Amino acid sequence: MTNALLIESIGELTTNDEANGGRLRDAAVVVEDDRIAWVGATDRAPAADERLDAGGRAVLPGWVDSHTHMIFAGDRTAEFEARMSGETYAAGGINVTVEATRAASDAELETNLKRLVAEANRGGTTTLETKTGYGLTVADEVRAAEIAGRHVDAVTFLGAHVIPSGKDPTEYLDLVTGPMLDAVAPHVSAVDVFCESGAFDEEASRRVLASARAAGLSRRVHGNQLGHGPGALLAVEYGARSVDHLGFLDDADVAAIADSWSSWDGGSGHPGTVATVLPACDLSTRMPLAPARRLRDAGAVLAIASNCNPGTSYTSSMGFCVATAVLQMGLTIQDAVRAATMGGAIALGMYEDGWCDPRGIAQPAVGAIRPGARADLQLLDAPSVTHLAYRPGMPLTVATWRAGEYVVSPWSSSDV
Ligand SMILES: N=CN[C@@H](CCC(=O)O)C(=O)O
Ligand SMILES: [Zn+2]
C-alpha cells in the first residue's frame, strides 16, 4: 500500500539533480514507500498522508560510504599510539587484524559489523560498501562476504589485501586469483587490490585485476597510499570503478584519472574511474592529504569515504570526512557533499536504477534526491550544508531515512 510522507519547509535541499541546479531553497520532498516521488517548492507541494515540517533546516541525500573494511575483530590501539609517537604506518599491521578475525566466531563478527553499521547510520550514512580482506583463507573470505552481505549494500572481495603471514607470495597469488575468487565471487560485486610496496606489486596487481575482469566483477584499487606507485594508472587501464587513497600522485596520474571521464555525460555513457579520497585515513596515518582539489579541477569525479577499519581509519563519520575535505583538502562545501553522496554512488555503480544488492534484488538509484531514487535522506539541525564544515565535529544529522523508513528518528514530527 502506498504511504506518502511530505517533508516541507526545507530551508536548503541538496538534490544532486541537474534538473534543478542541484540545490533548492524553501523546498519540499514527497516520499512514497521506498522512493522519492516528488521534489519542488513547499508552496506547490501535493497533499500527503503524513507531513513533517523541517522548520527551515537542511535536507540532503544520506551519505554513500563507498569504502570501508567493517568485517574484523579486535582493535589496534597500540599501533595507533606508536604511530602518534612517530612510527610510520606499514601494511604489515593488517596481519594483526587477520589473526584476530580468524579467531572470532561468526556471531562476534556479525555483532561488530552491526555496531559499526548502526554508528554509521546515526551519522547520516544510508549506503555502505564493505570489503573482505581480514580472513585471507578461502573459508574466512567466504565467511566475511556472507556476513557482510546481510548488512551492507555492496560487498567487495579484498583477498589481495596483504600476503598472509607464513604464505608463499606466488602460491597466495594463485589462490586469490583462482580458487578463492571462485568461492567468493557469488557473494560480491567487486574485487579490490592493495597495490603498494609491502602488499601487491604491479605484476601481481595486474593478475588480480585481470582475474576480476574475467569473472565479470567490477574492479577497485587501493593505490598510491604509502608512496608513488602504479596503482592509479592500473586502475584506469583496467576500467576500475574507483582508485582509492591517492596521497602520492604525479601529473600523469591526475590526467589519466580525469581523462577516464571523457565519454561520460553525467548520467549515461561509460563511467570512468572515480578518485576516492579518504581524509580520516590520511590524518590517522599522518600521510599527505590526497590532492582532492587538484583532481577536481582537472575534471576527475571524486568520492569521499570513511575507510572505516581498525588500522588506518577507525571512524565511520562521513560528516568528519566532509569537514576535513573542506577545511584541509580545499574542496568547496558543495563539492565535498556531492563527493560523499553522488560520488560514492557513482563509484559503486548505484547512481542509476537497477543495481543489484547482495541478495541479487534490483534497487533504485542512490546518491540524489530526485523522483524515482531510493528515499535516502538526512535532516540536519542546521540551515545549510555549510554548517558541516563551519561547525566541524558537531553531530548535526538529527534524522535519517533509508528507503523511506526512519533509521534515526530522534524527534517525533510534532517536535520538529
Ligand atoms: N591499505 C589497505 N587497507 C586498509 C588498511 C587496513 C589496515 O591497516 O588494517 C586501508 O585502506 O587503509
Ligand atoms: Zn581501504
UniProtKB/TrEMBL annotation:
Its EC number is 3.5.2.7. GO terms for molecular function: imidazolonepropionase activity; iron ion binding; zinc ion binding. 4-imidazolone-5-propanoate binds at residues 76, 134, 161, 225, 312. Its cofactor is Zn(2+); Fe(3+). It catalyses: 4-imidazolone-5-propanoate + H2O = N-formimidoyl-L-glutamate. Fe(3+) binds at residues 67, 69, 222, 307. It is an enzyme of class 3 (hydrolase). One of its GO terms (biological process) is L-histidine catabolic process to glutamate and formamide. It is found in: Cytoplasm. Keywords: Cytoplasm, Histidine metabolism, Hydrolase, Iron, Metal-binding, Zinc. Gene3D superfamilies: Metal-dependent hydrolases (3.20.20.140), Urease, subunit C, domain 1 (2.30.40.10). GO terms for cellular component: cytoplasm. Pathway: Amino-acid degradation; L-histidine degradation into L-glutamate; N-formimidoyl-L-glutamate from L-histidine: step 3/3. N-formimidoyl-L-glutamate binds at residues 134, 309, 311. Belongs to the metallo-dependent hydrolases superfamily. HutI family. Catalyzes the hydrolytic cleavage of the carbon-nitrogen bond in imidazolone-5-propanoate to yield N-formimidoyl-L-glutamate. It is the third step in the universal histidine degradation pathway. This is Imidazolonepropionase. It comes from Ruania alba.
